[in-house]
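Hi support team,

I submitted a single chain yesterday and got back a structure, but I'm not sure I'm reading the token output correctly. Could someone confirm the output below corresponds to the sequence I sent? I've pasted both exactly as they appear in my results page.

Thanks,
R.
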Amino acid sequence: MKIYIFFNGDFYPEKTPLLSILDRGLCFGDGLFELIRCIKGRFLLFSKHIKRMRDSATFLEIPFPYGENELLNAAKELTRRNKIKDGELYIEITRGEAPRYHQFPKKTEPNFFLVLNPLREMPEECWARGVKVITFPDIRWGYCHLKTINLLPNVLAKEMAKNSNAYEAFFTREDKKGTYLTEGSSSSIFAIKNGFLMTSELDNILPGTTRAAVIEIAMKRKISVKETRLYLKEFIESDEAFLTSTVSEVMPVIKINDRLIASGMIGDLTLKLQSEYKKFIKEHLEW
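Hi R., thanks for writing in. Yes, this is the structure output for that exact sequence:
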């Protein structure tokens, strides 16, 4: 079956050569991306993802060429052409093609593309039994609130997780009190202690859409939420732990490095938030 992509306003077979080797995304990582779940042909939190991308593009002074409805219509057309109802919509914008000089080019048009892939296969037992994570030094830059295509530190962390038979790698930083967790290489971090839901403060990390959804769900159900500096020692000693992301949803964490969390058992509050997030998904699909 022929797979199509959306590139700068038109649809092309996915292997069509379209991007110049002088594109600044290739040369400098000068661009942004988003990943959106497609469920039964509809898109989860589409408007929130597009707003985050548009705001980040404004920050980086990259012109944003499309309105939200135009992009939603393009995404819907990809579901029709590719016959994919459950998948992952990848969106990327770069500053465009220009001679390879570091300064922003004076006149260039951004490149913008959408790719709809089938949903990646993940074992159901991950959600039922929980997963192991490892820690990895946070060697990234100072603008992690932007979802840029500069992902080499994340790639290195993911590779180490794979080689350690772990599901994810959690980035760590140091302060006077010790080692603390910031976020996963592609996820947000949560821990539960004495009924309190804790998550890493928004201190040079990505404000994840699933993270925000889980906080919203918890607050509506009168669960106390604390955004704080989450130390590794506290995380290990927590009653429950989980990570969140667009694809992982609410994923229980039962081990970090060589230390079990709560004797390796998934907690009741994690299971409740898993269930509540499933309901949230059904209520926030956009078409």
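A quick pointer for reading it: The longest helix spans residues 268-283. Let us know if anything else looks off.

Best,
Support desk
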